[in-house]
């Protein structure tokens, strides 16, 4: 296993490999790469987080030496019956939609497994997947790049699930893809290898006048996510839309996705750390009602995308508190540049009054200050807890 990060930064991951290293099964090369590790192996398994892999000199060296390259998601899809796979992608909403589909299937008693970009790898659970089980996969644009025809290795077949969903498509991950066109093409790959009789579901297939789905989580965007889930679940099982919708009535939502984490003295606190695009941030604000009562914390790692929707939103808010690499630019719209999440929470809480909402919905990735969005959301929850510890009432 080789990584450019140091052993210290990868300590948690390295600890998980301790038994394999003790047995000599795994050898580490950390803090650097050696080209020979890529050119003298039987197989290279690339991390899909590696940006522009077609330009990476070490992956190019592997290809030049005739060494096949694969990824965790291709190792999985090569071993699945694609006729039992529901795939979900999109700039926003894909995690919630995938979870909703899995929730409906399990509530109705249909064996289903959730994986891909959410819920961890299914590779170590292959022996528990029966022939008639359904697999729900959240698929990122990077994963879909590696699932295209002949990308991973010579003769690699393109993969698309039998039931494929594209929730929406907005500019994102341009640092990885290089161009918007490449990002869009990778997203469209979810349909690119479908077969006659397969089902593709896009926003045009969703009825905007459909009956309201009884959800515990707010926002019109979650109603749209629910409609995607209803179509997919109905296609897979034959359930009627009303029956499927009722099965979502106890869906509690996902951690770090517009999650109400505390109420205190008439104040509400929402963790939407999963928001990594400005469009997702705008949807979160709209879901909470009057924006003039919303104090928004935004900013983070710069993915090279246009953040102007957040800038435009600033004048409508009760307050904008910006953090991270993109914070200074966002603050020019009238917000307060706070640099760190801790300072942003403290500054915002000091400005709030009864009826106000504090929302962490960064609109940016977390990698400038946190390892991932989960870590950022957990830090926000701790900071909010510290601010209101004496009388806060946690929400189950």
SSE layout:
Elements: E1 2-3, H1 11-16, H2 18-22, E2 29-30, H3 35-39, E3 44-45, H4 57-64, E4 69-70, H5 72-77, E5 85-89, H6 94-107, E6 112-116, E7 134-138, H7 141-146, E8 163-166, H8 174-177, H9 180-192, E9 199-201, H10 220-237, H11 241-246, E10 259-264, E11 267-271, H12 278-287, E12 294-298, H13 308-313, E13 319-323, H14 327-331, E14 336-339, H15 341-351, E15 357-360, H16 373-388, E16 393-394
Parallel strand pairs: 1-2, 3-4, 5-7, 5-8, 6-7, 8-9, 11-15, 12-13, 12-15, 13-14
Antiparallel strand pairs: 10-11, 10-16
Helix pairs in contact: 6-10, 15-16
User: What profile does the largest beta sheet have?
Assistant: 7 strands, mixed
Number of contiguous helices: 16
The overall number of domains is 3
The low-confidence runs, each spanning 5 or more residues with pLDDT under 50, are: none
CATH fold label of the largest domain: UDP-N-acetylmuramoyl-L-alanine:D-glutamate ligase
| CATH C-level category of the largest domain | Alpha Beta
Rg, Å, rounded: 22 Å
Helical content band: 25-40%
Distance between the ends: 40 Å
Mean of all residue-level pLDDT scores: 94
Coarse structural class: alpha/beta
Instruction: Give the tally of β-strands.
Output: 16
């Amino acid at each position: 296993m080789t990584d450019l990060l140091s052993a210290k930064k990868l300590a948690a991951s390295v600890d998980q490999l301790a038994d394999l290293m003790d047995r000599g099964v795994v050898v580490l090369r950390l803090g650097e790469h050696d080209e020979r590790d890529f050119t003298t192996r039987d197989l290279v398994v690339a991390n899909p987080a590696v940006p522009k892999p077609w330009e990476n000199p070490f992956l190019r060296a592997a290809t030049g030496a005739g060494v096949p390259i694969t990824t965790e998601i291709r190792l999985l899809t090569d071993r699945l019956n694609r006729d039992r796979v529901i795939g979900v992608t999109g700039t926003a909403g894909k995690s919630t939609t995938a979870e909703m589909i899995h929730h409906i299937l399990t509530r109705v008693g249909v064996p289903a497994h959730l994986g891909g970009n959410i819920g961890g790898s299914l590779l170590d659970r292959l022996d528990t997947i029966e022939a008639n089980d359904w697999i729900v996969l959240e698929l990122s644009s990077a994963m879909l790049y590696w699932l295209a025809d002949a990308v991973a290795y010579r003769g690699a077949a393109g993969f698309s699930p039998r039931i494929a969903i594209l929730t929406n498509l907005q500019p994102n991950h341009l640092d990885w893809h290089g161009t918007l066109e490449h990002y869009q093409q990778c997203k469209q790959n979810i349909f690119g290898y479908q077969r006659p009789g397969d089902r593709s579901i896009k926003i045009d297939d969703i009825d905007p006048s459909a009956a309201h789905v009884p959800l515990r989580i707010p926002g019109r965007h979650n109603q749209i996510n629910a409609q995607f889930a209803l179509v997919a679940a109905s296609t897979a099982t034959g359930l009627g839309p009303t029956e499927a919708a009722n099965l979502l009535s106890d869906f509690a939502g996902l951690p770090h996705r517009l999650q109400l984490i505390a109420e205190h003295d008439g104040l509400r606190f929402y963790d939407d750390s999963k928001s990594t695009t400005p469009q997702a941030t705008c949807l979160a604000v709209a879901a909470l009602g009057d924006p003039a009562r919303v104090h928004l914390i935004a900013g983070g790692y710069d993915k090279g995308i246009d953040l102007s929707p957040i800038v435009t939103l600033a004048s409508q808010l009760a307050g904008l508190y910006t953090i991270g690499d993109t914070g200074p630019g966002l603050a020019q719209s009238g917000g307060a540049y706070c640099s760190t999440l801790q300072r942003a929470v403290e500054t915002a809480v000091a400005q709030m009054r009864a009826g106000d909402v504090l929302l962490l919905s960064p609109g940016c990735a977390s990698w400038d200050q946190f390892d991932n969005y989960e870590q950022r959301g957990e830090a926000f929850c701790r900071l909010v807890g510290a601010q209101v510890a004496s009388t806060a009432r946690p929400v189950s």
